[in-house]
Design brief:
Radius of gyration: 15 Å
Largest sheet: 7 strands, mixed
Structural class: alpha/beta
Strand order of the largest sheet: 1-7-6-2-5-3-4
Mean pLDDT: 86
Number of helices: 6
Shape: globular
Order of helices and strands: HEEHEHEHEHEEH
Number of strands: 7
Distance between the termini: 32 Å
Low-confidence stretches: none
Length: 188
């Protein structure tokens, strides 16, 4: 089923930029942030990239997308249900535990936490990487170029503000599906 998913996305004209895991082994065990996130379509393209890379993703998705029809399929493809309204959901700790207990898993998070424009990324992904002792890999989906893949690897320094600026330098030139929902993006 994953091969069909990949084939459909490629038939739609998408190109994937995926490093070889031998050259960049961290892509199999990291916090992968995918940005910009302005449309549900981001999930379909982003998941195809991860499947094509042969990774074992845990993709954090808000609970509203889960129902009796979608839950089995989403879970099969690595989706983790998140109740964003519950501050006691222990999301950071759940992700840290997953990364510490499995050397062949990556946690996927959209750092904006929403499809609406924001002034800053939410910090959860950064805290997960720091506590789990794993790198952050910058994943991207560029709708204008129809390119998606893995960007640079960042090792969190502990100085979130400085690291955030480096992330925005990378993500800034990328074209979101809905540019009005991407605070740092360029016009399409």
């Amino acid at each position: 089923m994953k091969k069909i998913w990949i084939a459909i996305v490629k038939l739609m004209g998408w190109k994937f930029f995926i490093p070889d895991k031998k050259e960049r082994p961290e892509i199999a065990h990291c916090v992968l942030i995918m940005a910009p996130h302005t449309a549900v379509a981001d999930y379909f393209v982003g998941a195809a990239v991860m499947f094509a890379a042969g990774t074992n993703p845990r993709i954090f998705i808000k609970k509203e997308f889960f129902n009796f029809i979608t839950r089995p399929l989403l879970k099969k493809f690595g989706a983790v249900e998140v109740d964003r309204g519950n501050r006691k959901n222990n999301l950071v700790q759940r992700a840290v535990d997953e990364l510490k207990s499995n050397d062949d898993v990556l946690v996927v998070i959209t750092p904006e936490g929403t499809r609406k424009p924001v002034k800053r990324f939410k910090r959860g992904f950064y805290d997960i990487a720091m506590q789990a002792g794993v790198p952050i890999v910058l994943g991207y989906i560029d709708f204008k170029k129809k390119e998606a893949g893995y960007g640079p690897t960042m090792y969190p320094s502990g100085d979130y503000d400085t690291d955030f600026e480096k992330m925005i330098e990378f993500f800034g030139p990328i074209h979101a599906k809905h540019p009005e929902g991407w605070s740092w993006g360029v016009e399409s």
